[in-house]
User: Fold these one by one.
Assistant:
Number 1:
Amino acid sequence: MNTTPLYEAHQAHGAKLVDFAGWSMPLQYSGVIDEYHAVRRQAGLFDVSHMGRLWFSGKGALDFLQWVTTNDVAKLSVGQAQYSMVCNPEGGIKDDVFVYRTGSDDYLLCVNASNREKVSQWLSEQQVQRPHGFTLQDRSLQMAQLALQGPSSKSILSKILNNSSLESLKPRWCLDTTISGGKVLITRTGYTGELGYELYLESDQAAEFWKQLIQVGEAHGLKPAGLGARDLLRLDMGYFLYGNDLTEETTPVEAGAEWVVGFQKPEFIGDSVLKTQKQNGSTRRLIAFELLEKAVPRHDMTIYAKDEQVGQVSSGNLSPVLQKGIGLGYVSPQYSSEGTALAIQVRGKKVPAVVVKAPFYKRKPAS
Amino acid sequence: MEPSDLRFHKEHEWIRVDGQEATIGISQFAQDALGDVVFIELPKVGAIFEMEQELGEVESTKATSTIYSPVSGKVIRVNQELDEHPELMNQDPYGQGWIAVIELSTPAEADQLMTAEQYEGFLKSEA
């Protein structure tokens, strides 16, 4: 089992640790709901060091990333990031990723922990065929990654950061800086829907940095938060979870994520299938739905339209803030438009549901 | 230490017998294993259950789990507070987190359940 550089910190906070993709990770500390509300109302600090961090460097990095990811990497300015996908030649999703342009010829690809080895291998195979002008380095195990999320995150971070650029850092932009002499890449990204930052740093600095954030954050209501809260927070936003909502058998078009596909950019892996699906439609489509009675939808439950089985739930839970059962699922396209009446088979009972537009949760405008 | 006035079922439900009635809930161990409870599907007042029949469902942030009736009888009260405050099941599983009161049809069944001491031993053997 892999452990992150923050393992001792988690134990000291009384975390309940679980095996997640081969990593011993905190499921919760004070409680899933308590941590969820801390992030929605104040701030939460997550250890996301289990994620994969692949670095690309060199003149050929852009062309290579254009070939292996779906979004248009050429649109990124230095210091900017984009959500994207790595597809197989059939258009199936190998992983959903974040691409950061950290220098004019430098990129960071952040991949899911559960897919790191698979994607790393896949990219190496692709590199053999297109070796021109770049290096690829998997620095996942040499680095740590934290996510500081919630309305108070900016106030907390600015207290330990001597850099006024944080104030103007826009969503999906990054900032190279130093904290206590150590290099940190700060990005305004996250998986919660709140104002928030992710921090990429060297492993040996992680424990000290975590401690500082917790100390400074205490007065702002900051709490350490685990995977349980993270999953509820992301579902409120309709964000995908790889393995549930995205698999090698689903495409970005089926997932309703055409916005991460650069249909105009040069040739890339999976493009012909995606272009065909965009033009002719796909046989299924991801929807967001809410239950009209209090019940909790779960992964793999059947979705009905009247008495006909039309699909399956890919993610579901009860939103603590909305107090409603919410979920994502795949249905035949004719049942995917907003307002369509459906039902979810929750154990013995068909619970009425309606197709809605994600996000389920809408953040209050920043004051 | 588990409260000594309770009897426990191996599915981690407890009962507190008072004459012909028994209050039912889930154990400290069960609530901890479930994690934060978000919703409880309570049985209906008047419903009749056999021992080990499904009495209701507990939904936590992690999963759904079934509550089995540790004894046979008729439901005469349910804890409506849990609709508004499912967290009571986590905070006070042996008190305010009770689920239902059953009128026992076969009071002798209670003797088949574990004492607090036996349940503690059972938890250790399961660990």
Number 2:
Amino acid sequence: MLQKPERLIVDGKRLDGRAFDELRPVKIVVGPLHRADGSCYIEHGKNKVMAAVYGPREVHPKHLQEVTHAIVRYRYNMAPFSVEDRKRPGPDRRSIEISKVSREALESVILKEYFPRSTIDIFVEILQADAGTRVAALNAASVALADAGIPMKGLVSACSVGKVDDTLVLDLSKEEDNYGQADMPVAIVANTGEIAFLQMDGHMTQEEFRKALEMAIDGCKQIYKLQREALLAKYGGLENE
Amino acid sequence: MNNGKFVLPGDLVGIAEEFLAGDGVYEEGGKLIASVTGVVEIDEKAKRISVRPLAGVPAKIKKGDFVVGRVTDVRESIALVELSRVKPNETREVSNGGMAIIHISNVRKEYVKDMNEEFSPLDIIKARVLDERTLQLSTVGRRLGVIKSICPHCRIPLRRNGDALECPKCKKKFKKKISEDYGTGVL
């Protein structure tokens, strides 16, 4: 188990040596799964996340289908081995909530009207968790949707920001998440700057909140660049054929 | 914006005054924005800008497409077909599929007297889409029709023998609207 560190910020640096506005290293692989219509694997620091997209396809059970637009289903799931103690498999209160808010974030960009009476299914598996899994999952899902060729208004990019030792820091690590004072995951649509998703845990003053939101949006923009590069690396090579 | 530029969903490709929005492009607030990953294509004549997808494409049935499905029921003048795949996107499930209909007048060029002679439940067929909204199909054409069928008594695949199908076990013969690709595995 983690020991509570005495201080989370030592000599103006974080425990892992990052600056206050620095992200953890991110690696994005587009299309690792061949059976899915679209997929993406992301390593965000020690987080390991796999996302798969199926559809648009027929809705089962049939009564869920909508005549005017496609429905979107999002499943956030943590593997039993993703955390230190074994996680009891299956959906729990936390993952149901994360699924709901993440689905709503993606629904705001997917052009659902193009596919009436169908469903777009998104499955995200957390293989290894280390704080900030919901934003890593959202980043992976958004790239997987682009890989599946599902029409969208833009890519969703997400990032978390928090407060530790009375200082605002970007992209919380495990220690900072567990023993910090606040945690705020944010997702934006990078092209328009719209906020697609925002949650907050803990306490911040109004001034801190404004500053934190600014930092988070900057972080999301950095993530967007990485998502863009990953998609370009997979598909941009075909540009000159 | 130039022809052949690589774009992602959300990228600005043009202004509503200069072009019409084609495939893979949507209009919002006077701006033309890409909705899929791909390269920009400009049709100067039609003044239309579209994005040719490079990532996957959802399988959507349109008029004139060739589809593969399974016959689920044969009535007096129609056969019901459960759609599965659409050419040329065979690896993806269809998004606007469901129950399609072949009317007796769309089975073959010649007059068809009895629908039960042409199709039977569980036949796998290839057909052309006449209307994507009502899902009307046609099997008029040499490569269209049954591509796999089983014997209703022995439950083993029928073999092609000239212009009829024959059960290898009970030697029963079946007429049917057979595709040229019967038994070849070619979709």
